[in-house]
Structures are given as C-alpha cells and as structure tokens.
Amino acid sequence: MHNSSWTHKIKISKGHYNESDMLSENAFGIYFEFLDEANLIVSFKPLNDKFPVLTKDNNEAVLLNFEREFIEEDDIEYALEIMMLFNNSKRLVVKGTDKTEKIHAVIHMITAELSLETPSYIILKTVLKVLMLHLIRFQNNAFIDQDLNQKRVFQFLKLMEISFLKETKTEYYAAEMGISEKRLNQILKSKLNVTAKQIIQQRQITEAKRRLVKSEITIKELAYVLGFDSISSFSRFFKKFVKVNPSQYRIEHT
C-alpha cells in the first residue's frame, strides 16, 4: 500500500487530551492514562461516539486514534473483537507492572515507526494488532472477575454485535440468554443505565452513520439492511437521534 494512502489514517500524540488531535468522529480512539508504573486507565472512543470523561491534564497520557479502514483488511473474527473491545466498555483498568510495561513497549514501537520518514504499513499494522490483542485479553480477563450480571451484560453485547442487523427485538436476545425480557432490562439498567432497546438503537445509528459516510449505499438499501420496512420509517428513526435526516447527514460528512 502506498504511503500516502494510509499515513493519515493513524495518529499518536502524548500529553493532555485535545480533541483536535482526533482524526475525525469516524475514527477509533484510545486514551492511555498512566497513573504510575503499575496502574493504567484505558478509555475507548467507538466510531461516531465520544470518549467518557477524561483526565485532560495528565502529561503522561497517550492518545492513539485510527480509522476503521486500518483494520478492515483483517479477518472477520478479529474485526468483531475490535468492535466489541470499543463498544463493550468505555473504560478499562489495567493493573500490574508486567501489563503496563507491555502497553508502554507497544506504544513506543508505534511512535518510533510513525516518526520515520517512510514508516512501514506492514510493521505498523502488525504492531497495532499486537496492541489490540493485549487490550482484548485484558478486557476478557477483567470480565472473568465480574459478577454474574456483569457477565450477562457482556453476553448481551457480544450477541447484539453479531446479530443486530437481523434481530432488533429484545425478546430475541432474552431468549438466547435464557432469561426474561424484564430480567434482561433490569440487568442492563443496573449496570449501564440503559435498556436493551436503547443499546440496539444506538448500535443501529452508529452503523447507519458509518455506512452513510464510508460507502455509496442508497438510503433505501441502508433502511433495508438495518431492518426497516420503508425509507420514511428509517428517516424518522435516524432524525430522532441525529437531528437531521440521512441524506443531510451524508452531505455534511462527506
């Protein structure tokens, strides 16, 4: 891949957080707050979303952001793991010198490669994948230590990420998990302060925004892909959350 076609799709910066350092709202963002040698807080910005509240005056913090295209060439399973990493939890606490040193080392490799006059796409993509796999492992280990309800939240989010284009009813997910709709919503409200329907709708909006900006899909086709029976019903749904209709959003962001 030619240098000019990808170098603008990944960026790393050190110091306090500045929104201007983000490539775009359509980029993944990871904010590393190194508290000390053994403690690290990792915050995630999914596509078309924002970071949770950050400590903006941490001079030891590192912001890494990259666009979806930088990982889309990888296998589907890996891409799905990435989507779940960014959408399952907005913040990850990493404890242990061995873990923080691994993250430090990989960030240093990315920084060093990007500083070269002609950085290698293959090296950067490989090192970025190593970083993502470390974070996925840390997140999975964190869930092992959580209570049953937290595990059910993770189960729902994982199932939803796989199925939301075909299944948008809460009853489907509750049945797959072996619990009632009422119980599923009770768990999600207690842990995330949202219902299953709200999470599914937000995922639909995120996917709609991504496809409107990154593809040439028609509004009619997009409505069908997302499970709507007409353009008008999809447009009303989209405008309710985004405040503009799909056509206007595409014009404003392309």
Automatic annotation (TrEMBL):
**What InterPro entries does the record tag this protein with?**
Homeodomain-like_sf (IPR009057), HTH_AraC (IPR018060), HTH_AraC-typ_CS (IPR018062), Tscrpt_reg_AraC-type_HTH (IPR020449)
Entry keyword Transcription regulation: yes
GO molecular function (one): sequence-specific DNA binding
Q: Where are the transmembrane segments?
A: none
Q: Which domain of life is it from?
A: Bacteria
One of the Pfam families matching this protein, by short name: HTH_18
Q: Does the keyword Transcription apply?
A: yes
Q: Which residues form the HTH araC/xylS-type domain?
A: 154-252
SMART domains attached to this UniProt entry: HTH_ARAC
Keywords of the record, alphabetical order, are:
DNA-binding, Transcription, Transcription regulation
Official protein name in the record: AraC family transcriptional regulator
Which species is listed as the source?
Answer: Formosa sediminum
